[in-house]
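Researcher: Structure prediction, please.
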Amino acid sequence: MEKRNFVTIADLSKDKIMYLIEMAKEFENNPNRELLKGKVVATLFFEPSTRTRLSFETAANRLGARVIGFADPKVTSGTKGETLKDTIMMVSNYADVIAMRHYIEGAALYASEVAPVPIVNAGDGSHQHPSQCLLDLYSIYKTQGTLQDLNIYLVGDLKYGRTVHSLIMAMRHFNPTFHFVAPKELSMPNEYKLYCKEHDIRYQEHTAFNDKVIADADIIYMTRVQKERFSDLMEYERVKNVYILRADMLDNTKPNMRILHPLPRVNEIAYDVDSNEHAYYFQQAKNGLYTREAILCDVLGITIEDVKKDKTII
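Model: Predicted structure follows.
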């Protein structure tokens, strides 16, 4: 079988996205199976993570696989000077698939070119986060009943936010209208605005963030201002609390509107929003389990027909 990777959302067709969403639905109906019994999943996290790492490891465990890996690169031979290539080649001797997060943009693509086993990109720098994007798509689909013709507001750190970069690429198939809400220091990079123009994706830019601006939203996608991406901490201090979503801003929003956030949050969503009917970010995180089960199965050649035929009860 040809080796499959899950490195960038830009390579996925509309049919493939919907296929993976359908597979995730099957896993939501029954997440506990033994479809990966006898397989080993390696999680290599060269950068801190909570939700992504734990959901990949939970997905592997619920599918019957065993998990190896690390959450702190300081405990690896990288501290002795081992190259990324050598680490990937070494781990490939022990694992059937590698889920990897790295601080360097393009690291997952490079790993996919040298590894003999499938590579799943769990985030590479400020570039892409395709598995987060798939769970975002699944969350949007669940809450809206469609991915088509939606008004999606991306708010906060659009410069360094790899989750919003991935979402733009994935939504090109579904005729969205994007609203980029950010201070000038964190505005959407020109390369992604050019991408929108090349793919006939409508977008508007805003610097204001208030109840009038968000009144027509179907999805409000909040992002954290990422301190770790800033070389100038004074710049971070200037922008870290520019946009805060509060419950009193939601009174005139559409009934179907839902608030997403890749988490962790800092101050950008006030705690009084948590109990609001529009809040969906904790359910969104839960959806990561089902979509990452789908990703692991897909790269290992397990089809949706295999999932549907599986009658495992654990």
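Model: The longest helix spans residues 281-299.
Researcher: Thanks, that helps.
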